[in-house]
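Sample entry (103 residues):
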Amino acid sequence: MNFDYPEGATPIDPDEAQGLLLPHIRTMAELDRWEQENIFEAENSVFKRRQKDILTEKYVRSLHKKMFGNVWRWAGDFRHRYIEALQAADRHDYEPLLTFVRS
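Predicted structure, serialized as tokens:
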């Protein structure tokens, strides 16, 4: 899988790309379409009723899983690249976090 990314798009990390559940996807447009359909399904489920405790890690992970679970194996999990960047920032090494944010 080798995507051409539009201006401002976040590139997909090669390790994360291994978690794509739909091997037939070959273009960014196809990926966007599948992700948007999954997000639409999640919206229909989530916004039907009032949600409680939305500012918790459990809720955020659950929502992410609903939004991307039909597309990505790692949906609902924190990305390792992000966690590593935060750990580096704890050691006052901010370059990995800046690189992550810029990507």
